[in-house]
Amino acid sequence: MAQEDGFYDPYMFEYKGVYFNCDLTTVEYIDSLEHFAIRDSDVFLVTYPKSGTVWTQQILSLIFNEGHRNGTEAINNITRVPWLEYNIYNMDYDNRPSPRLFSSHMPYYLMPKDLRNRRGKVIYVYRNPKDGLVSFYHFYKLMVKATNSKSWEEFFERFLAGKVFGGSWFDHVRGWHTHKDDFNILFMTYEEMKKDLRSAVLKISAFVEKELDDEDVNTIVEKATFENMKHDPLANYTFLGEDLLGKSEGGFLRKGTVGDWKNLMTVAQNERFDQFYKDKMKDLPIKLIWHID
Ligand code: PPS
Question: For strand 18-21 and strand 43-47, is the pairing parallel, antiparallel, or unpaired?
Answer without folding.
Answer: unpaired
